Amino acid sequence: TKAQAWSALFSEPMSDLVKRYTSSVFFDKRLWQADIMGSLAHAEMLAAQGIISAEDHASIQKGMAQITSEIEAGGFDWKLDLEDVHLNIEARLTQLVGDAGKRLHTGRSRNDQVATDVRLWLRGEIDVISGLLVELQKSLVETAERHIEVILPGFTHLQVAQPVSFGHHLLAYVEMFKRDAERMADVRRRVNVLPLGAAALAGTTYPLDRERVARTLGMEGVCQNSLDAVSDRDFAIEFTAAASLCMVHISRFSEELILWMSQNFGFIRIADRFTTGSSIMPQKKNPDVPELARGKTGRVVGHLMGLITLMKGQPLAYNKDNQEDKEPLFDTVDTLKDTLRIFSEMVGGQLNPATGVKEGGIGVNADAMERAALKGYATATDLADYLVKKGLPFRDAHETVAHAVKAAISEGVDLSELPLATLQGFHPQIEQDVFECLSLRGSLNARNTLGGTAPAQVRAQLARHQARLA
Ligand code: ARG
Any idea where the Argininosuccinate lyase C-terminal domain is (predicted)? Predict the structure, then answer.
């Protein structure tokens, strides 16, 4: 039996090593649904254009239905000898329906076929990822809503800076994941374009109706240049770039979760099922999930580097190099999906079907956060602003407050614990009402500009997100 689609020309068989080296079936078989979908759309068009007969079209449909159930049942015999998903399915089709199967590839090449398959598959995965990004945003929004009034020390340079609402802090991530979702939607528009009809590289001599195939497949258009259609993978690179950014956002959040749950912060707890113990230290509960997410970010960014490097030296048009697009792309999708799923649950908890309430999300130790915020003179800027309102130029106020902070540090107290008389020593216009502005809550409430951390602003942000995500 003929082992390869082109074997007549060849005087010797491939060695086993070369077969294993060049074959992709054991990873690209996951494209099978896209491959069948693309083939069916192509066959339907071939029949409509009178390139194949209606009977052949019917046989192809029947054969593909059979192959679908074989694959779904796990009974399909994937053969390394047949190199990839495309040749495996086509060979089986021909086995099942004879010549009609051999006619399927009319006006088509594996070059436009594989580009189509990857696009169709990726389109579906982008839709899943977009849904998961909505879920994660919802989890963050729900958690933020419960913690608008909880005060967290906001950091710059990891030094206590100004108090912020914990809800506000979480909503910062919602903004990031919102942009990630927008990027996914944007990438999808360029993924969802049809290469089929480009054939090997130059187009084909048959009167194909490419637009018809695009419509059947729900694609937004056809690739306008056959050489470009079969050879570029910029859509995959773009997707991986968007995925990398999303993982970077997850990674920054992970870093914060890890810090916050260390004993020295003690700000939060995450559910035990996202942590592991130590084989030697009985007291340990380690934040393995956020740590792994931070680690897996490196892996996805690595895939981006891999894909972009894969492309850089390739002359037009198709080159076998492009077979190497699949494993990084598949792994990027798998890693991102798992990470998003796990974070939605870790942040927002899991729905208890008995009560209809989500349980086991992030647990917050509001006292520890507040105590930490009280440690770092987080309201010093508020005192400077207070003096500005009394007429001092900001730079002078800044200097005056620096003296006050220095004195408070040497006393080992917070600014709000200095007696009024001491404060007045720094500036005579300081009055009793200063203590309101030196309090964490006063500081928070005062930051009432659009996008600021005042609870009123955070509520407005929340409402905007809730409406958008509903
Ligand atoms: N398995 C190949 C890939 O992933 C399919 C296209 C191969 N085309 C070719 N002429 N060798 O890119």
Answer: 377-445
| Domain segments of the chain as ranges | 7-106, 111-141+161-206+218-359, 369-469
Query: Has residue 1 got a pLDDT over 80?
Result: no
Q: Is the pTM of this model over 0.90?
A: yes
Average pLDDT, rounded, for the chain: 96
At 284 the pLDDT is 84
- Name the closest-CA residue to atom 11, ligand 1: 320
86 is annotated as an active-site residue: no
Domain 7-106: CATH superfamily, name plus number: Fumarase/aspartase (N-terminal domain) (1.10.275.10)
pLDDT one-digit tens code per residue, 158-182: 999 999 999 999 999 999 999 999 9
CATH code for residues 111-141+161-206+218-359: 1.20.200.10
How far is ligand 1, taken at its centre, from the CA of residue 124, in Å?
A: 21
Residues 131-141 have pLDDT tens digits of 999 999 999 99
* ipTM, two decimals: 0.97
323 dihedral zone (left: phi>0; alpha: psi -120 to 50; beta): alpha
- Look up the CATH architecture of domain 369-469: Orthogonal Bundle (1.10)
- Report the alpha-carbon distance of residue 28 to residue 93 in Å, rounded: 18
User: What residue owns the CA closest to ligand 1's atom 2?
Assistant: 323
What is the Cα–Cα distance from 216 to 211, expressed in whole angstroms?
A: 9
Q: Which of 7, 53, 262, 278 is catalytic?
A: 278
Q: What is the pLDDT of residue 4?
A: 59
CA of 218 to the centre of ligand 1 (A): 24
Q: What is the pLDDT of residues 283-337, one digit of tens each?
A: 888 999 999 999 999 999 999 999 999 999 999 999 999 999 999 999 999 999 9
Residue length, the chain?
Answer: 470
> DSSP for 73-130?
TT-----GGG-SHHHHHHHHHHHHHTHHHHHTTTT--HHHHHHHHHHHHHHHHHHHHH
Catalytic residue flag (residue 15) = no
What residue ranges line ligand 1, CB within 6 angstroms? 24, 28, 84, 110-111, 114, 320, 322-323
